[in-house]
Amino acid sequence: MFRNLFKSHTQNPLPSPPPDADSSMPGLLMQDMTEGERLSHYSEQLGIPVKKRLLEDIRFEGKLDIPIQYFKRMGLVPLFEEQGVLTVAINDPANFQAADDLARRFGFKGTRMVLSPLGEIHSAINVLFDQTSDEAEKMVQDLESYQSDDQVFTELEDLQDLMDVTNEAPIIRLVNVVLTQALRRQASDIHIEPYEKEIKVRFRIDGILYEIFSLPKRFQAHIVSRLKVMANLDIAEKRLPQDGRIKIKVANKTVDIRISVIPMAFGERIVLRLLDKSISILGLAEMGMAPKRLEIFEKLINKNTGILLVTGPTGSGKTTTLYAALNRINSMEKNIITIEDPIEYELKGVGQIQVNPKTELTFARGLRSVLRHDPDIIMVGEIRDLETVEIAIQASLTGHLVFSTLHTNDATGALTRLVDMGVEPFLIASSLLAVLAQRLVRRICPDCKEPFHPEE
């Protein structure tokens, strides 16, 4: 899309931000406010709307000859032009002048401001300067003459931001581009699939797999080795499945990745599950429940004992629903402990345990230990075996509220699954509060949608 991203610009340099423009509130008090509270305060004082999501509004098509670091330092990003007016997202009203200068620089007659969180602005900047397709093609050209070197086998250094890595080996940069592009597109999974003559890279976005690009077959071993090194897996083992974790930093966001490697007919196939911890937890009212169901669900999560299960296919938002429930009932009067694989979001005031099979810390073993920590509410990331469900039932029958998930297609299927695991029906009847089944529903594109009237 845009070239010469890091080319220095010496003509007509843009100004540095002026001192803080807001004087209606003492600086010390402003420091104690969260970013959301600060943006709301600015919005109320200055009449500027707050926009928390920017990615769907990035339609700027001008030629950018300003370094990407400038936009990140100033905390602003141009979004789109409408009737000669440039809409710019800013994080700090003190940068009004810089936004106006930016509009004049590109020949617009005016500027419209919106306030946005800094992390969202950085994500929008990365999308605006997106070079992924062209960069991937260039890297493939570089790889044509590439010979394996020791850089591929170097480990990550203290969460170095992948956006700042520009002088590494082509294989490393290619893997970084795949990861950053998946995060920009808000993909939940990355599939790296070996075939007879090529490697295909696919992203799962909103529940649907999309092919992003193909790579020559001969780079397969280098890509697999690089990802294994990042996950501290055995690069020499090619006959058995391996699982691991990667922690990376992209655009100042920390992202956890679950990696699964499995041998296939044409080589090792890799699936990466992306867990962006910067994404805010949704409230129960934002989960899409009907008002009546929401009322029932809120009554259930305020019970003192019993088991509440959430079911649905992989990636349907089961854990997100349980996080929203914990967030609603979390208080200083309650001791809440979770056992997760992995910890997807950090909840303030909640004790969270990371399952680790290598140290034999399983769901069952963790749950058994948690019961000795006087919990009021326990969340088990997933019920996978009879031992875990038996301990969960025991906990619910001894005065604890237990949340967990099951992989079933519907709510009634949860009962069949529990019986199939070996749980006695009378124990299910005495401990199970309710089962909530859910699906991830795709949204209609706001720009492409059009009215439709069915004939019948």
Describe this entry's structure for a reader.
The structure is a single chain. This protein has helices spanning 27-32, 35-46, 68-74, 96-105, 118-128, 132-144, 170-184, 220-230, 291-301, 318-329, 363-370, 386-397, 411-421, 425-431, and strands at 76-82, 85-90, 110-115, 189-194, 198-205, 208-216, 242-250, 253-264, 267-276, 306-311, 336-340, 351-354, 377-380, 401-406, 432-437. The chain has 456 residues and is of the alpha/beta class. Helix 6 (132-144) runs antiparallel to helix 7, helix 7 packs across helix 8 and helix 11 (363-370) runs parallel beside helix 12. A hairpin with a 2-residue loop joins strand 7 (242-250) and strand 8 (253-264). 32% of the residues lie in helices and 23% in strands. It has 14 helices and 15 strands. The chain is globular. The protein folds into three domains: 27-128, GMP Synthetase, Chain A, domain 3 (2-Layer Sandwich), CATH 3.30.300.160; 132-276, Beta-Lactamase (2-Layer Sandwich); 284-437, 3-Layer(aba) Sandwich (Rossmann fold). The strands form three sheets. Strands 6-5-4-9-8-7 form a six-stranded antiparallel β-sheet, covered by helices on one side. A six-stranded parallel β-sheet has the order 12-11-13-14-10-15, with helices on both faces.
